[in-house]
Design goal:
By secondary structure, the chain is mostly beta strands. The chain has one helix spanning 21-35; strands at 37-41, 47-50, 54-58, 76-84, 89-95, 99-106, 109-113, 118-121, 125-130, 135-141, 148-155, 165-170, 178-184, 192-193, 198-205, 210-214, 220-232, 235-238, 242-246, 250-266. The protein is globular, with a radius of gyration of 20 Å.
Length: 267
């Protein structure tokens, strides 16, 4: 069954005309297209803090950075872009009821937690910690000479108090233009399980190429640029930019420069 558009005004329908199924379908498509929306979050508009050992950008409100207009997007609560100085890091601290993904772009990050997990995460590997009923962990730059550059992502779970879990996996990064599923509520192809109706992809589009991706218009899409420059349904995005995309049934990604990004498909 077709879902109704978000708003239906009397002026949008000609009540003097006979109502036909084809007419209703055409109206629904046109109304959905009118309501389609892309909201850009520019890289330079993000919250920023330089603590010396940590240079960090916050897409959404986090810690001492508060912006009531950017508190998250659907179940996506945090995207922090962190650069941690050699030998420095976050000491042991608690988390609860959050799905935490760590995506290392450059360098190496050492992880330890109260579940007994200990690992060093490098580019080409994704880490997920379900904090659930409560966990403590630390994160340090594993190198004494090179910085580590990463994205830390928090997604709110569907239910509270689950048993804490730790997972990681290698990533088969797209060699050309394409998407690779990293994590999902019902994962396939080795993706990590998320306790939320959400899917997380890593994507790449080669310069001059186009990539299309079909989406449910009732879901929300967040696209976070890692590097490059591309057009998303004709909207320009560059390194560090993000975009909230709603009521679209298809994404068309045209790469002006070779581009790498994360794509979040959120119920």
């Amino acid at each position: 069954m077709l879902a109704p558009p978000d708003r239906l005004s009397a002026s949008a329908v000609n009540f003097a005309s006979p109502v036909t199924l084809a007419g209703l379908i055409r109206f629904w498509i046109e109304e959905t297209q009118r309501n389609a929306m892309i909201q850009i979050r520019r890289s330079e508009e993000r919250g920023h803090a330089d603590h010396g050992w940590l240079d960090t950008y916050h897409t959404f409100s986090f810690a001492r950075y508060f912006d009531p207009e950017h508190m998250g997007f659907r179940s996506l609560r945090v995207i922090n872009e962190d650069v941690i100085a050699p030998g420095k890091g976050f000491g042991t601290h608690p988390h609860q009821d959050m799905e935490i993904l760590t995506y290392v772009l450059e360098g190496a990050l050492e992880h330890r937690d109260s579940m007994g997990s200990r690992s060093v995460i490098r580019p080409g590997r994704i880490q997920k910690m379900s904090a659930g009923s409560g966990v403590q962990h630390s994160e340090y730059n594993a190198s004494d000479s090179e910085p580590v550059h990463l994205l830390q992502i928090w997604i709110e779970p569907q239910r509270l108090g689950i048993e804490p879990q730790y997972r990681e996996r290698d990533i088969d990064l797209p060699q050309g233009s394409g998407l690779q599923l990293l994590a999902a509520n019902n994962p396939s192809d080795g993706a990590i399980e998320l306790h939320q109706d959400a899917s997380v992809y890593v994507g790449r589009v080669e310069a001059g190429e186009e990539l299309t991706h079909e989406v449910d218009p009732h879901c929300g899409i967040w696209l976070q640029m890692i590097s490059g420059r591309l057009k998303v349904n004709a909207e320009d995005l560059e390194t560090g930019d993000g975009a909230a995309i709603t009521q679209e049934s298809k994404l068309t990604l045209d790469a002006i420069e070779t581009s790498n990004f994360l794509l979040f498909d959120l119920a």
